[in-house]
Specification:
By secondary structure, the chain is α/β, with parallel strands linked by helices. It has two domains: 110 residues, Rossmann fold, CATH 3.40.50.1860; 113 residues, Rossmann fold (3-Layer(aba) Sandwich). It is 48% helix and 11% strand. Helix 5 runs parallel beside helix 7 and helix 5 crosses helix 11. The mean pLDDT is 97.
């Protein structure tokens, strides 16, 4: 099997979530049946949304540093549990000799396989405004719908003020506001709601809303298992 290299730390909880999903999805009967995975939880990588939209520190040097470290340690391909970081995908891959399996491509392909033609996207401002999802989904023929300005603030708060700060108590999370956002997107005809930030699956599980959405992290985990050549458990 191929060795997976994970550019992690964006954030640490999301990195753990991806690793757990890969482990759970691998049809293994022993330790030796699992995939060799190398993780660099590089918490020095600057905030991606701040860099894209607000002139923040460029994350590319640290992203490339992690990519090279993983390649040098034996990784055969890379994955990143951060949707926004895929804005810098080409700048990373041009510095290494191994491929990077895209969370966005993996999610689009999964929705296509289910016949989804219209989906709502919950993600960071950086992911939404940079068009990293739109560019891929337009080519796949999937229409994207986004929360309005006020609802997007709630999504950003859920990511930055709660999950990234380690707050997972459903009684403290903005449950009602989040449910209202999902309902609005469904009322607009969205066949699926994409959890397009790797912190969101963690929050949505705490909120009891996970099963109604498409988890981009889960789709990346499936793609990584397949790309590594390991047997994938049946859904």
């Amino acid at each position: 099997m191929k060795i997976i290299g994970i550019i992690g730390g964006m954030g640490p909880a999301a990195t753990c979530d991806l690793y757990q999903k890969i482990t759970d999805l691998t049809d293994a009967k022993s330790d030796q049946d699992h995939i060799h995975i190398i993780i660099d939880s590089n918490t020095n990588i600057p905030d991606r949304t701040a860099a894209i939209l607000h002139g923040g520190t460029d994350p590319v040097p640290e992203l490339v540093k992690s990519a090279k470290l993983l390649q040098d340690d034996g990784a055969d391909f890379l994955i990143m549990p951060c949707n926004t970081a895929h804005y810098f995908k080409d700048k990373i891959t041009e510095q290494v000799d191994i491929p990077l399996v895209s969370i966005i491509e993996s999610t689009a392909d999964a929705l296509l396989a289910k016949g989804v033609k219209k989906a709502g996207l919950l993600a960071t401002d950086g992911t939404v405004q940079s068009g990293v999802y739109k560019n891929v989904f337009d080519k796949k023929g999937i229409e994207l719908v986004y929360p309005d300005e006020e609802d997007q603030k709630v999504v950003m708060s859920l990511i930055y003020d709660f999950v990234k700060k380690g707050i997972f108590d459903p009684e403290k999370l903005p449950t009602d506001k989040t449910k209202a956002i999902v309902k609005k997107l469904q009322d607009e005809g969205c066949q699926s709601i994409i959890l397009g930030c790797t912190e969101l699956p963690i929050a949505f599980k705490a909120l009891g809303m996970y099963d109604m959405c498409t988890d981009a992290t889960l789709e990346l985990a499936k793609a990584a298992v397949r790309f590594a050549g390991a047997p994938l458990k049946e859904d």
